[in-house]
Amino acid sequence: MLSRLLKEHQAKQSERKELQERRRREAISAATCLTEALVDHLNVGVAQAYVNQRKLDHEVKTLQVQASQFSKQTAQWISMVEGFNQALKEIGDVENWARSIEMDMRTTATALEYVHKGQLQSASS
User: Fold this and answer.
1) Residue 41 covered by a domain
2) If residue 46 lies in a helix (H) or strand (E), which one and from where to where?
3) Contacts of 123 (CB under 8 A, 6+ apart)
């Protein structure tokens, strides 16, 4: 009888060990599945962040190139406007010079007419 009790006890312990081992494997399997699901979920977010970062980097490079081109074009426009302003100043200077010469010529012509008239009057008298 003692031997039968011992065998029953050993059989129950063996069943409990098997049950415990099965539950341990199931728990490990469930934990592994959960971990994989969490990692996959995180990886999706990380992958999306990586894709977004690459897009942003590309957009930044494009914007830098466009800003550089705009800066060069603006510098060219400024140079052209400054040249145009200088040309306008020169035209104004030439116009003033021409007026001055014209006034000098009129003064000289008037003086010559006055002298000529004076000579004609003195020759007639």
Assistant:
1) yes
2) helix 2-124
3) none
CA–CA separation, 1 and 10 (whole Å): 14
Question: What span, in angstroms and rounded, lies between the C-alpha atoms of 125 and 117?
Answer: 12
Range of the domain at 32: 1-92
The pTM for the full model equals 0.49
The candidate with the shortest Cα–Cα distance to 98, out of 87, 109, 90, is 90
Closest CA to 81 of 94, 97, 73, 70: 73
How confident is the model over 18-37, as pLDDT tens digits? 999 999 999 999 999 999 99
Question: If you count them, how many residues does the chain have?
Answer: 125
Domain contains 26: yes
Give the chain's domain count. 1
Q: Give domain status of residue 107, yes or no.
A: no
- Sign of dihedral through CA atoms 96, 97, 98, 103? positive
Amino acid at 46: V
103 belongs to a structural domain: no
Query: HSE of 112 in the Cβ direction (CA atoms, 13 Å)?
Result: 6
